[in-house]
């Protein structure tokens, strides 16, 4: 099952490589990984999406917690949560394609953020399925380049991940 | 306040941490540190002949004393040579700090001479690693390193020290921190009371219980609590290879150690139990055999300081995270207060069954009128040393024979590389013990394969006068490899024979020690007595043993705990 694990990590050199190393050492999957500093400059927030049986996920969270630089973590998929991913897509856009792409972008509530005579660059945010859906809708033949940030997530309601 | 250079602060920090000995080898990036070491005489340095041995020495010291060991090496090859030793300590959760020189911070990343990314190389095999980024941080980094190494589930910690951090011309105010603050590292100090209560209720209701104890009991200094609880309950107890000595092996409630080469009765009792109380063990594959066939009727209580050890391979019904001594203490008081008592009738018939298993096989081997059996060497040394020696071993058949036939009644006496299985561990580990226990007998059981993996340390033994007794069970083959080839590869002995073995007697003499060869059965006892009488000499005892002996019992691969070979021909 797919899980989103969100981690508060000491903002120190080497901390990220310990997390990434753990996944490869113990043969766990990483599907996406995002990391950036938080409003507290001593902390980074890292979000990793992974798949595995409940037993594997339990081991992943326990092993992550064992890392000295991991301050706190939560499995967001255990409760109601919001997940977002940002995607930039460069598409071939000439002739009648231009209007068609514009319509599709509007349906997906994306934005065209850069335009040339033959290329549109589209920005789209949402959950991963929505981004997958957009790629399917425009078709891979028109796609020149795709870049995705990976998933970031946050719990719904009052629940917060903080010290 | 005193002004000290980075190197001086480092050595002073070690002294303030209570470190008496460090084991190491100098080199370019560590020279400022070695100079500071030279100019004081409180922290003593032991110069090994290979850095791997320095780590095993520190490891042997740590296992025998329960205190963290300390290693000092230079960058590059000095640091990478420690990796096998660090991995050995990591697998067995041994507290240790490894201080590594590094090229100057201005050169890092430029492929400088003797530069290796030691933080990267060591990362998978350390509990944690730290680097010094400013010289004034040194006391705090050292305090943190020992704190992390020795608390919670212990383990090795590497500290990477760029050469410019220890420069002699820059001086700083020195003070050693009393406490460390680590917001993200808070090992459990006690177990969950509700879970402990639940566990005790289950213990009282059990019909066929077994206590299964591991190295965590020794690391957690909880042998006396374990012994008290076991006696209060009257349950059979087995332990892992790493747990040997956590409960007296000669006691009647002890049913031997379990797993791949464990006793018949311990493996049978585990398989047929209805309740397993696991204390500081981790259901390792050398214990469980095939996990899907593991102890089908047993419910499991698992006590461990490391939550990640619980339900990793075998699911626990009642997990208890906490230090084993504190958890066992609470259990003892609950057992004593409890109105319920263990089910005496059920226990009596359970013990009757176990005694039948013990009588059916137990620990036994066939003797021969003329060939020396490796097992009888171990048994004889057990008797001649009154079961009170510190015993280290290398890895292979001799390790299993030593663990099976030397009966340990005390913790911290059986010292071996159980998790990683590191050949070459035994001699340096014995040296680390002898250094701090000069009045105790220290035996190193080894084989002609293993001993050659760190034999250069005979030179260190001479320099520091370390009269350990090396018991080389010489079967002229890599015995365990050969055994597996006999059993699984139709006796095709691929590369498991060593041609051109050295004359170990002359070799020992060349290093300034005594060598004794024993190849006749009638010489065994008198010569071993002579060896043990040479109190102040290192004696290399080269004993020619049966070349065809196998270690039994041996669990059948991919079977359950109860599926065992009891000899070359008997399978149950």
Automatic annotation (TrEMBL), chain A:
Pathway: Amino-acid biosynthesis; L-isoleucine biosynthesis; L-isoleucine from 2-oxobutanoate: step 1/4; Amino-acid biosynthesis; L-valine biosynthesis; L-valine from pyruvate: step 1/4. InterPro entries: Acetalactate_synth_ssu (IPR004789), Acetolactate_synth/TF_NikR_C (IPR027271), Acetolactate_synth_ssu_C (IPR019455), ACT-like_dom_sf (IPR045865), ACT_dom (IPR002912), AHAS_ACT (IPR039557), AHAS_small-like_ACT (IPR054480). It comes from the Bacteria. Its EC number is 2.2.1.6. Residues 4-78 form the ACT domain. GO terms for biological process: isoleucine biosynthetic process; L-valine biosynthetic process. It catalyses: 2 pyruvate + H(+) = (2S)-2-acetolactate + CO2. GO terms for cellular component: cytosol. Keywords: Amino-acid biosynthesis, Branched-chain amino acid biosynthesis, Transferase. One of its GO terms (molecular function) is acetolactate synthase activity. Belongs to the acetolactate synthase small subunit family. Catalyzes the conversion of 2 pyruvate molecules into acetolactate in the first common step of the biosynthetic pathway of the branched-amino acids such as leucine, isoleucine, and valine. Dimer of large and small chains. This is Acetolactate synthase small subunit. It comes from Marinobacter excellens HL-55. The lineage of its organism: Bacteria, Pseudomonadati, Pseudomonadota, Gammaproteobacteria, Pseudomonadales.
